[in-house]
Write a structure and sequence with these properties.
This protein folds into 4 domains: about 130 residues, Rossmann fold, CATH 3.40.50; about 180 residues, Rossmann fold; about 130 residues, 2-Layer Sandwich (60s Ribosomal Protein L30, Chain: A); about 80 residues, Alpha-Beta Plaits (2-Layer Sandwich), CATH 3.30.70. The chain is an alpha/beta fold. The chain is elongated. Helix 11 links the parallel strand 10 and strand 11. It contains 17 helices and 22 strands. Helix 1 packs parallel to helix 12, helix 5 crosses helix 7 and helix 13 packs parallel to helix 14. The chain binds 1,4-dihydronicotinamide adenine dinucleotide and 2-oxoglutaric acid (AKG). Belongs to the D-isomer specific 2-hydroxyacid dehydrogenase family. It catalyses: (2R)-3-phosphoglycerate + NAD(+) = 3-phosphooxypyruvate + NADH + H(+); (R)-2-hydroxyglutarate + NAD(+) = 2-oxoglutarate + NADH + H(+). It is an enzyme of class 1 (oxidoreductase). One of its GO terms (biological process) is L-serine biosynthetic process.
Length: about 525
């Protein structure tokens, strides 16, 4: 196997380069590479490691024909077009914890900077003014600290603030009462937080719901003299409205690390005496940068070399130990899906996938994605294991997943049941000890067949003479039969045949099979 190739296109700690090399990945370190050059060379790489400067757009991804994984050394992936990457089957990973402490510390540092006007006092002192009477700060002890978004970073800020003897209140719809209690935080509604907080710090991602969460209207509901810190994302606060509130004296100070437009060369907040600004330095410590660089290099290498998936935004996690166990079942799930997809003529309403026995202990989410990809691929273009669940959801196809203990003869079984407007059809498969996937049931009828590149699937009435007539139709057309698997539910009942043939089967031959008395369906399947 040739070594996978990774490009580092942002200023990552060089520790990442070493990790890639030590793991056997070819790496090119090109921090700050020009956008046009990146477009020209991205087609040579299997992996891309970035921070926030590289903009991974749909246009860039069109050129990224080999790319399998994008790793963000940091948290926010707002510089990556995740839906476009997903549509191309590219895994997008981040490193959700590596810079959290550092960013939380920056929020606390900015809170102190505001409380004691440190940047302005520094500038004045170094200018030789010694303005001892100009700077009158406020104590943090006993003040109410309002945290909007109490996830990884917000929680660390909360713990630090509790240590500073502040009264901490948090607005986060997903914060459980137990977690709030453990953190020593009072969980409140946004209105309550706005009305009570002396300091407000924001720690949510930028989403439709959080955009301008501190709007002009909400800023007007804050306590007079409030101080606001934003170390999360530009756009959470309406910068124009905040400037007006600073000018009127309603807001006493604002410390911002992130801005609506970055790099922020100009901004409505700039120039106000009570504003402290840093250039998106939240994650900028030696420790955090080493953490995220090492993590992203390990995660990308693990994926490219061993199929392990960690911290992916668009796919379930799979460990390096799980990957080899999962691989034959991924193939089985995809082929079962493909079998059903090739027989589906439209009106697909739902797919139910049941995992029985040892396979039920594996990461079945990944298997379900594979099955849905197999199912949709014959119907839609450009579906892959990463994009399939989202595409199915967009089309209103319900996906159900069930796991249960083994009940029958097999150690592991996957049953895929498709419901369309007109019928319900199940296909059952397993993986034999040789690692090969097998079909062991169709529509409740037991069979035993391998998936072959070219197959004919026939469903018919169990009547004498079918096999002879079938062989004659194929023989007359010069088509060689390689293997023949039959099954029936009862003598004279419903039967199925799975026939491996050499080469493509012309429609006229399938029509000839269909014309055999008792044949209900005859389809070519390819795998
Ligand atoms: N300035 C910098 O350099 C850095 C900025 N960040 C940013 O900090 C932010 C927070 O990061 P983490 O704490 O790691 O994320 P996280 O995902 O752990 O926490 C985010 C929290 O926001 C909450 N939330 C979501 N929607 C909300 C809403 N409508 N109202 C209130 N709360 C809501 C979530 O429930 C979650 O608890 C992210 O935007 C990240 O990109 C992260 C690292 C460095
Ligand atoms: O990489 C950086 O400096 C930015 C970090 C950040 O904003 C994040 O991790 O979300």
């Amino acid at each position: 196997m040739t070594a996978p190739k990774v490009l580092i296109s942002d200023k990552l700690s060089e520790a990442a380069v070493q990790i890639f090399r030590d793991s056997g990945v070819d790496v090119d370190f090109r921090p700050g590479i020009d956008k046009d050059e990146l477009e020209q060379i991205i087609g040579n790489y299997d992996g891309l490691a970035i921070r926030s400067a590289t903009k991974v757009t749909a246009k860039l991804l069109e050129k990224a024909t080999r790319l399998k994984v994008i790793g963000r050394a940091g948290i926010g992936v707002d510089n990556v077009d995740v839906p476009a990457a997903t549509a191309r089957g590219i895994i997008v990973m981040n490193t959700p914890f590596g810079n959290s402490i550092t960013t939380a510390e920056h929020a606390i540092a900015l809170t102190f900077a505001l409380a004691r006007e440190i940047p302005a006092a520094d500038a004045s002192t170094q200018a030789g003014k010694w303005e001892k009477n100009r700077f009158m700060g406020v104590e943090l002890t006993g003040k109410t600290f309002g945290i909007i978004g109490c996830g990884n970073i917000g929680s660390i800020v909360a713990e630090r603030a509790v240590g500073l003897r502040m009264k901490v209140i948090a607005y986060d719809p997903f914060l459980s009462p137990e977690r709030a209690r453990d953190l020593g935080v009072e969980k409140v509604e946004l209105e309550d937080l706005l009305a009570r907080a002396d300091f407000i710090t924001l720690h949510t991602p930028l989403t439709e719901k959080t955009k301008n969460i501190l709007s002009a209207e909400n800023l007007a509901k804050t306590k007079k003299g409030v101080r606001i810190v934003n170390c999360a994302r530009g756009g959470l606060v309406d910068e124009v409205a905040l400037r007006a509130a600073l000018d009127s004296g309603h807001v006493a100070g604002a410390a911002f690390d992130v801005f609506t437009v970055e790099p922020a060369k100009e901004n409505p907040l700039f120039g106000h005496p009570n504003v402290v600004a840093t250039p998106h330095l939240g994650a900028a410590t030696t420790e955090a940068q080493e953490n995220v660089a090492l993590q992203v290099a390990e995660q990308i290498s693990d994926y490219l070399l061993r199929g392990a998936i960690t911290n992916a935004i668009n796919f379930p996690s799979i460990t390096a130990e799980e990957a080899p166990k999962l691989r034959p079942f991924v193939e089985l799930a995809e082929k079962l899906g493909s079998f059903a997809g090739q027989l589906t003529e439209g009106g697909l309403k739902s797919v139910r996938i049941t995992y029985e026995g040892s396979v039920a202990q594996l990461k079945v989410k990944a298997l379900t994605s594979a099955a849905v990809a197999g199912l949709l691929r014959p119907i839609l273009q450009d579906v892959n294991v990463v994009s399939a669940p989202a595409i199915a959801r967009e089309r209103g196809i319900v996906i159900e997943e069930t796991t249960r203990e083994a009940e029958g003869d097999y150690d592991a079984l996957i049953t895929l049941t498709v419901t369309t407007d007109d019928y319900e059809r199940s296909i059952v498969g397993t993986v034999f000890a040789d690692g090969k996937p097998r079909i062991v049931g169709i529509k409740g009828i037991k069979v035993d067949a391998e998936f072959a590149p070219s197959m004919i699937y026939v469903s018919n009435e169990d009547k004498p003479g079918f096999i002879g007539r079938f062989a004659t139709v194929l023989g007359d057309a010069g088509i060689n039969i390689a293997t023949f698997a039959l099954g029936r539910d009862a003598e004279g009942g419903s039967a199925v045949a799975l026939v491996q043939v050499d080469g493509k089967v012309p429609q006229a031959v399938l029509d000839g099979v269909h014309a055999i008395p008792g044949v209900k369906h005859a389809h070519q399947l390819t795998f």
